[in-house]
Design brief:
Aspartate Aminotransferase, domain 2; seven-stranded mixed β-sheet; Aspartate Aminotransferase, domain 1; three-stranded antiparallel β-sheet; globular; alpha/beta
Amino acid sequence: MIYFDNAATTPVRREVLEKALPFLETAYGNASSVYSLGREAKKAVETARAEAAAVIGADVSEIFFTSGGTEADNWAIKGAAEALKDKGRHLITTAIEHHAVLHTFEYLEKNGYEATYLPVDKDGLVDPKELEAAIRPDTILISVMFANNEIGVLQPIAEIGEISRRRGVLFHTDAVQAVGHVPVNAPELKIDMLSLSGHKLYAPKGAGALYVRRGVKIAQFMHGGAQERKRRAGTENVAGVAALGEALRLASAEMELEAERARKLRDRITDGILNNIPHTFLNGHREKRLPGNINISFEYIEGESLLLLLDGKGIAASSGSACTSGSLDPSHVLLALGLPHEKAHGSLRISIGRFNTEEDADALLRELPPIVARLREMSPLWSDR
């Protein structure tokens, strides 16, 4: 299998797996226990916390481990809403957020809060001026993702952070797709809360983290024991946390070289498709995007059929977010860019990872054109054209 769906999840790196295994086999103690097995587990958790903090320029006291990006998003948004409800009940986000953010906003709207969903331009970018204009005296939280999970577009986070800090509004960013792939320094960018997840970084599923800037007060999300300094209850996933820390350390050390390698593959595949298959176009800004993200629409075909035929050739890709892959609705992200339904339905997301090679790119560029031609021959829209 040639795997081009790394934005959905990544394989676990051997080095990361080896970091986790001892805490499943021999050092299996509860990190809250005082005996040696527990102390060993606790040390692994704190080592991972330091590694996570270092990647985003944070202090170790500002990192809280979660089960992943979805929990981190929910905690940040619901926690801020609960803690600041006496100050105001207005929230701001964008129309292209991951559903972990959008559905959380919708939940809060049903419980007495009001939300503004900012539009994006044709390249998928939020206008910071529109964001500032949307701030009201009762605005308590802004949540804008760092990099979009479908089209890979990098938002103007520095400008948004500056506006949020100046206007006294908390700023959360879902950085699940960004951390480890592009430089992220939370203090410099004036980010108050940041979500990240391990399974986008070659760590196992089930481990993530929320950065909460020192001094920011949010309500507790998980209730129970005193873990995570009494902020997030539940026995620590020591193996997952240790793996997450190692994955973050490796990603940070290799980021510059890996980003350049992925960018070259990205541009090679993008140009190969656009130059050799007619009636195709790139979704999202050409340059302001993740190094390994490609999202292309093919007119007159349907994306699910394209994925199935690619799978038959041993190539795995996606048509959008894995979290909505069972839906027949077109991508809300592509619709927000202004694409009509029929063009949004014909999209292909190719997300490049560290194990992809030039040979993988050659195989995709070889197999894709005849598949697209075959599907178009079967399409009444193509014959009508």
